[in-house]
Amino acid sequence: xxxxxxxxxxxxxxxxxxxxxxxxxxxxxxxxxxxxxxxxxxxxxxxxxxxxxxxxxxxxxxxxxxxxxxxxxxxxxxxxxxxxxxxxxxxxxxxxxxxxxxxxxxxxxxxxxxxxxxxxxxxxxxxxxxxxxxxxxxxxxxxxxxxxxxxxxxxxxxxxxxxxxxxxxxxxxxxxxxxxxxxxxxxxxxxxxxxxxxxxxxxxxxxxxxxxxxxxxxxxxxxxxxxxxxxxxxxxxxxxxxxxxxxxxxxxxxxxxxxxxxxxxxxxxxxxxxxxxxxxxxxxxxxxxxxxxxxxxxxxxxxxxxxxxxxxxxxxxxxxxxxxxxxxxxxxxxxxxxxxxxxxxxxxxxxxxxxxxxxxxxxxxxxxxxxxxxxxxxxxxxxxxxxxxxxxxxxxxxxxxxxxxxxxxxxxxxxxxxxxxxxxxxxxxxxxxxxxxxxxxxxxxxxxxxxxxxxxxxxxxxxxxxxxxxxxxxxxxxxxxxxxxxxxxxxxxxxxxxxxxxxxxxxxxxxxxxxxxxxxxxxxxxxxxxxxxxxxxxxxxxxxxxxxxxxxxxxxxxxxxxxxxxxxxxxxxxxxxxxxxxxxxxxxxxxx
Length: 592
What we know:
The protein is α/β, with parallel strands linked by helices. Among the domains are: 3-86, 2-Layer Sandwich (Gyrase A, domain 2), CATH 3.30.1360.70; 162-255, no CATH class; 284-324, no CATH class; 403-583, Orthogonal Bundle (Isoleucyl-tRNA Synthetase, Domain 1). The chain is built from 22 helices and 14 strands. The relative contact order is 0.10.
């Protein structure tokens, strides 16, 4: 039984003994910083069954707890709030009971698996800043779910077919002069992305020429030869034309190679890949089944729909009148296929921007209506866009912030700031480069992940690489400081001392209180699919450690037991920082 459960039980017993009344539940919460106490019992809800003054009721319950719960040292009552102070020995016993803080808080994987989808790029351009938020969120949520005790499969569906892919293929065929990534010394995804931009520029020229010849804007867009050639190329691809498929394979191969390089640089990975070229025909058989079950209905023109009006949504097209699929069809089919491929999957998390909120509401509802039990455990990890101070990004106009360029810029910013601080003059060139990259990536990841996913972000690279405040580098620097303490302590601290009866400093108690919250924070972050909870927990822990470091002598104390305990406490904090940051995909440096 946890202490929280013990307190709940004892408070219910106290109310029954003192007032002859039964409480259904007890509201406990952490005591506010400005009051003395560790856990607060809220008395006001008890007034439904106990009549009287809330302050007096709080006093009576507090006295009962001091007498009957050994961990309760004292209490105070502020209006209807009973602030319970736990004994130092309780915190000391908890701290000494943890053998390994590097794995503290992480659950054993059991039960059904969860599939987390993220990235899912188009193969006509490199990954950009918007993709970076997507992959960081998806990867981190997958790691958090694993830490909370779930088996996790990381996946993506690569959008490798369609008119947008044919645009870059056609532009390369017309204007590429046989260019390859090797010849141009460009990453394959960048080379292909350049031709996507080239298509757009040439297409716009054709539109303007047709408008000057008297066509309307709409007529010009439809009659421009480039768009018609791209549509013809798509028809050839769908018909399996050998030459077209060979070009598609070649250019997609360039892009995949470029993507893998970027994923490796960002530090994310995948367990399984799905390709739209394989999945775009999925789902039609499920639609036929759904018609038999009255989940779908056919209109006079032969198109198939799902009526969701009773659920507060619209009618949704799931099959066109000519029998061709829409995106919803293949999303239904892909979800079902994934469970066929991995029968232990009991739910899925889709990391997709908030412009698709309605699409996923409809998809999840249709899958539930079709009777799939796992459809109850589907979640759209919806997130806001990332803007830069310079404004919104547009892929086809070539105004996106390329992910590779962003990583390079973050590394350069970290280099500039680190060199100004001048704390790594004794590092080798290779050590410095590795550190700049670690700081730059840590700054980028933390800046993005500390924000609630639903909120839009204005990303400022310089602001993110700051060694003060709620930033990745500030936390990384604190970790490095702890490692420095541990290195110095190796010769000075005895590991044979008994640490079970240390007289704790208030700052030590505060640190242990925060350490104790880590398992619950992991579970909450998993339940809410929110890396921000891990990020901000880590910042709170680091702030508390720095306050401890500034107010309590660690290696300078003459008391050997105190010294050993404080070193052990510092080590525990370092291990939790490293563990928490690993859930965010962030590395920490041993020296900085």
